[in-house]
Design a protein that fits this description.
heterodimer; A: 108 residues; mainly beta; five-stranded mixed beta sheet; four-stranded antiparallel beta sheet; 9 strands; B: 114 residues; 11 strands; 0% helix
Chain lengths: 108, 114
């Protein structure tokens, strides 16, 4: 199964944008790029997903490179509530395969 | 709309005992997944139900784990007998359809085996 590479941690100031990179050089044509996050003491929470085109929703934006070998999750204005572990996951069907994710720290 | 619920929220048992975890998915969701995070490790997939059929159970660690979903509604995950290495957080998730659709996770059951 295709794997992803993310930085271990990132820090941001409150109300500033956060750009979370993800490398997935072995992505296949049928893999969707999913992002989930996990707040402390909670289950993972869906954030966004895409295939080829950039995607926006109320939580975030997903920018996908033209060759699909990398993507970036963008939190437009970080809040303290956005402090969580963010997971970039490739998924073609069924199960999610979590990596270590990126710990996002938001400072006031 | 109620989310995915899991019971109990925390269970402490002794090695060798049996524990049953329950998951109630979002109403109408045919797909139900079990995952777990054991100490210091990443979240790992255990198995996937479509309605009451096991679609993928490739992540089940061994035959001490038994998952059921009778009637295609709630699911149970039984660990018998429990071992120390089974300690961790067990998550359940559900989705409306298979494929790229998002999964909705429950809060998890923290299992402690002493």
């Amino acid at each position: 199964d295709a794997k992803t590479t993310q930085p271990n941690s990132m820090e941001s100031n409150e109300e500033e944008p956060v750009h979370l990179p993800c490398n997935h050089s072995t992505i296949s044509g049928t893999d969707y790029i999913h992002w989930y996050r996990q707040l402390p003491s909670q289950g993972p929470e869906y954030v966004i997903h895409g295939l080829t085109s950039n995607v926006n929703n109320r939580m975030a934006s997903l920018a996908i490179a033209e060759d699909r070998k990398s993507s970036t999750l963008i939190l437009h204005r970080a809040t303290l509530r956005d402090a969580a572990v963010y997971y970039c996951i490739l998924r073609s069907w069924g199960k999610l395969q979590f990596g270590a994710g990126t710990q996002v720290v938001v400072t006031p | 709309e109620a989310g995915v619920t899991q019971f109990p929220s925390h269970s402490v048992i002794e090695k060798g005992q049996t524990v049953t975890l329950r998951c109630d998915p979002i109403s109408g969701h045919d797909n139900l997944y079990w995952y777990r995070r054991v100490m210091g490790k990443e979240i790992k997939f255990l198995l996937h139900f479509v309605k009451e059929s096991k679609q993928d159970e490739s992540g089940m660690p061994n035959n001490r784990f038994l998952a059921e979903r009778t009637g295609g509604t709630y699911s149970t995950l039984k660990v018998q007998p429990a071992e120390l290495e089974d300690s961790g957080v067990y998550f359940c998730a559900s989705s409306q359809r298979t494929g790229s659709y998002e999964q909705y996770f429950g809060p998890g059951t923290r299992l402690t085996v002493t």
